[in-house]
Amino acid sequence: MSRIYLSPPDVGPRDHEAVERAFRGGWIAPLGPEVDAFEEELAAATGRSHGAALASGTAALHLALLLAGVGDGDKVLVSSLTFSATVNAIRYVGAEPVFIDSDMHSWNMDPDLLEVALASDRYAACIPVDIYGQCADYSRIEPLCAAHGVPLIADAAESLGATHRGRPAGSFGAMATLSFNGNKIVTTSGGGALVTDEAEWARKARWLATQARDPAPHYEHSTVGYNYRLSNLLAALGRSQLSDLKRRVEERRAHNQFYREALGDLPGVEFMPEPADNRSTFWLTVLTIDPDEAGVDREMIRLHLESLDIEARPVWKPMHLQPVFADFPVLGGDVSARLFERGLCIPSGSSLSEPQRDRVVSAIREAFGGS
Ligand SMILES: Cc1ncc(COP(=O)(O)O)c(C=O)c1O
């Protein structure tokens, strides 16, 4: 039996054709018609006016911070429950993260803690992260940041296709960043984007991403630039993947529903909640295991799955517990720490088959000592 992966790329013949089309078009470069069209389609998918296609989600975060004017010694509010890339980008510009814990309703940035933080200090930016396919509570976060004049950058790397109160992920804040890494709902093997309503920011993002070349016949530079643009070939793949986003979301949501029904009766098991005003993509299905009730812990289940060639992963280890960021302050911290201790991400890819799903369920039930 073949290995079941957590969230492998879902690619098909249409994707192959799209990349071949780009090859035939002759633009084998980090610019070209596929990049331009991908940017327009990304802006449309996120309810934005503009998009800049980039080499990664991390590059998008880095540029968003530069565009917001964040620099040396500035403080940036950020979700503690995230992948390290969000915080690495804060460090690239010399700024200092101030971590905010998750709430239990959506596992995203706790707006009550954000309110406390905003009342007590000045911040150069705020980066809520839409975790595991679910938007943060922007209905509260947007007005809070606006009232304190703090630029809001939404890290929507994991939430493309989700909505909050009917508005699409990526539409919140001054800018939002996306990732098309191999494990994401839409992949370009590696890639990312910055989306915004400000034409000038999109233009400047593209300019910074192509080594900040000034207008001149020779190579003239007045600013430090980066090589962060997305290849035209990969943009073609991104377009083909994005055109299929709706199906990808439906597949992942169906897996989530299936797992809830098939595993919901197990003692001590709960699933990541979905507040009524959110529609998650369930990019990953995540469950928590209370070891006292379950009689097994998250790690025992993960190892059992691994022994059966099924990939599962602990929830992100919060950034305030990472050795590299241990010196930076955190508001709260217990909620994300507990989610890390108890949370397990299970196979959720949009190409996961029904027999594979059944295998995952049987393996988890076996780990609980039953069938
Ligand atoms: C929340 C979050 N932010 C940022 C990134 C970084 O994106 P990339 O890998 O495209 O640089 C990722 C995932 O990879 C992520 O999950």
Q: What amount of the residues lies in strands? A: 5-15%
User: Bound compounds, please?
Assistant: pyridoxal-5'-phosphate
Strand order of the largest sheet: 1-9-8-5
Which whole number gives the mean pLDDT?
97
The total of beta strands comes to 15
Distance between the termini: 20 Å
Estimate percent helicity.
Answer: 25-40%
Outline: globular
Structural class: alpha/beta
Order of helices and strands: HHEHEHEHEHEEEEEHHHEEEHHEEHEH
Q: What's the total helix number?
A: 13
Largest sheet: 4 strands, mixed
Radius of gyration: 21 Å
Poorly predicted regions are none
Structure commentary:
The strands form four sheets. The chain has a four-stranded mixed sheet with strand order 1-9-8-5, with helices on both faces. The two termini are 20 Å apart. Helix 4 (84-92) links the parallel strand 2 and strand 3. The chain has 13 helices and 15 strands. With 371 residues, the chain is of the alpha/beta class. The protein binds pyridoxal-5'-phosphate (PLP). Residues 56-58, 82-83, 85-86, 129, 155, 157-158, 179, 181, 192 line the site of pyridoxal-5'-phosphate.
